[in-house]
């Protein structure tokens, strides 16, 4: 029913920027929370940010001031603008959708029911 498609990943040097996009279909984005997660090899999936039309957005401490989630309601599109990228930001980034709340900087994967396939972000010299 709900489909999520990420795009915008790639390779960038430290200090560079990328903008990820997550297109949703099947359920209006206004009815969802969207979470951004990342996973490095050998590590668990880490919540990075969440956003909803009702609650606004939240970001984990390590990306505050560098990453900004935004919502394009008319196109059912969510973006994650990533600036001042660091090597430790490297990983596969996933968007996910759920029906709970985005009211904490701790983005809990258990709040999300639908997942995109992921897009690779590599930050290196």
The separation of the N and C termini measures 41 Å
Instruction: Count the DSSP helices.
Output: 0
**What is the structural class?**
mainly beta
Q: Work out the number of β strands.
A: 11
**Helix share, percent:** under 10%
What is the alpha-carbon Rg in Å? 13 Å
Global geometry: globular
Strand count, sense and barrel status of the largest sheet are: 7 strands, mixed
Assess the beta-strand content as a share of residues: over 45%
**Mean residue pLDDT:** 96
What is the string of SSEs from the N terminus onward? EEEEEEEEEEE
Q: Give unreliable regions as ranges.
A: none
Give the helix/strand layout.
Elements: E1 3-7, E2 10-12, E3 18-25, E4 33-39, E5 46-52, E6 56-59, E7 67-72, E8 77-82, E9 91-98, E10 112-115, E11 119-123
Parallel strand pairs: 2-11
Antiparallel strand pairs: 1-3, 3-8, 4-5, 4-9, 5-6, 7-8, 9-10, 9-11
Short description:
With 125 residues, the protein is an all-beta fold. It has no helices and 11 strands. The strands form 2 sheets. Strands 2, 4, 5, 6, 9, 10 and 11 form a 7-stranded mixed β-sheet that branches. It has a 4-stranded antiparallel β-sheet with strand order 1-3-8-7, with no helix packed on it.
């Amino acid at each position: 029913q709900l489909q999520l498609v990420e795009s915008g990943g790639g390779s960038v040097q430290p200090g560079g920027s990328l903008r990820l996009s997550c297109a949703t279909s099947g359920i209006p984005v206004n009815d969802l929370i969207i979470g951004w997660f990342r996973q490095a090899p050998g590590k668990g999936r880490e919540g990075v940010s969440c956003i909803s039309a009702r609650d606004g957005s939240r970001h984990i401490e390590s990306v505050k001031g560098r990453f900004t989630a935004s919502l394009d309601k008319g196109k059912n599109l969510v973006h994650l603008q990533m600036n001042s990228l660091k090597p430790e930001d490297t990983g596969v980034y996933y968007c996910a959708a759920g029906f709970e709340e985005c009211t904490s900087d701790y983005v809990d994967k258990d709040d999300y029911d639908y997942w995109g396939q992921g897009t690779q972000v590599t930050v290196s010299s």
